[in-house]
Amino acid sequence: MTKPSILVTRAVFPEVIDRLAQYFDVDSNQQDVALDGAALRQRLAGKSGVLANAADRIDGELVAGLPALRAVCNMAVGYNNLDVPALTAAGIVATNTPDVLTETTADFGWALLMATARRVTESEHWLRAGKWERWSYDMFLGMDLYRSTLGILGMGRIGQALARRAAGFGMSVLYHNRSRLPEETERALNARYVSKTELLAQSDHLLLVLPYSAQSHHSIGAAELAQMKPSATLVNLARGGVVDDAALAVALRERRIFAAGLDVFEGEPQVHPGLLTVPNVVLTPHIASASEKTRRAMADLAADNLIAALNAGPQAGRPPSLINPEVMAHRR
Ligand code: DGY
């Protein structure tokens, strides 16, 4: 019997390719050549499934020309790269990789927050440049985390994992979310629901962990930055586009907020040039989930999803992390 064909759009752990090859005829991109729109379309022709990356845009127009495609499995929890309604309408199963990356991403968010508030990278660059001649009392004064007010915009799994970390620092936690958490969860997290306006005004440190969508585009722009404390720090772990990076660069240059830590950018891997020239920002290349163990778990889960979605393997039929369960009634 011929195996269904699949595409793995970017390089991934070789063991994952080997596992997929037990079930599928695998077209893999282990050279990690970026597949732009036309190349992606061409490589997807005739494929039954795809193990995709958060940077692969898979929309209605693309899938309209791919009648054989039955499953799109993202190796990311975020899936703003997928046009889910279009996939559902076409009968295509869509999956992501939630849970396995929650704690690793929250750990990194904490590292970014601490590096930002305590000026870790700025002082290191200064030291490496040979500028350290003597100690002085006011060298690189930063902002404390302990007993400060932490604001969290987007209180899903990762937001809640961050709130749990705040307890160890004696912080007060405020949050804003599309929907309010049940009271017992708020109590367990010691987190108080507030309006977005209050969140902006009260937070000493503001963490962004909300999903990107047309509604959350530029949730933090010039107007929101103007409502924050001049001593506040802002950390974006969510997606580029949640913050207006041009407005943020201006606010940082003019010291309207104290500092920012950014793991995600509008139009990444491009970074707004204004952000590259201000000292009070810590910049990392979208690595919040990048621990050895977690990236393996994400790749394994994406592969499990693909194997199940194409009716192979022990879990045939129902992928473990289905984004569009309503597709099951009319899937291709
Ligand atoms: C995710 O899982 O959404 C991370 O941001 C990696 O893309």
Summarize this structure briefly.
The protein is α/β, with parallel strands linked by helices. 34% of the residues lie in helices and 14% in strands. It folds into 2 domains: 130 residues, NAD(P)-binding Rossmann-like Domain (Rossmann fold, 3-Layer(aba) Sandwich), CATH 3.40.50; 182 residues, Rossmann fold (3-Layer(aba) Sandwich), CATH 3.40.50.
Order of helices and strands: EHEHEHEHEHHEHEHEHEHEHEHEH
Give the distance, in angstroms, between the N- and C-terminal Cα atoms.
Answer: 20 Å
Strand content: 5-15%
In the CATH scheme, what's the topology name of the largest domain? Rossmann fold
How many helix segments? Answer: 13
Give the biggest sheet.
Answer: 7 strands, parallel
Quick check: average pLDDT? 97
Which molecules are bound in this entry? Answer: (2R)-2,3-dihydroxypropanoic acid
Tell me how many strands there are: 12
For CATH, the homologous superfamily of the largest domain is named as: NAD(P)-binding Rossmann-like Domain
Number of domains: 2
CATH architecture of the largest domain: 3-Layer(aba) Sandwich
Arrangement of strands in the largest sheet: 8-7-6-9-10-11-12
Low-confidence stretches: none
Work out the oligomeric state of the chains in this entry. Answer: single chain
The assigned structural class equals alpha/beta
CATH class of the largest domain: Alpha Beta
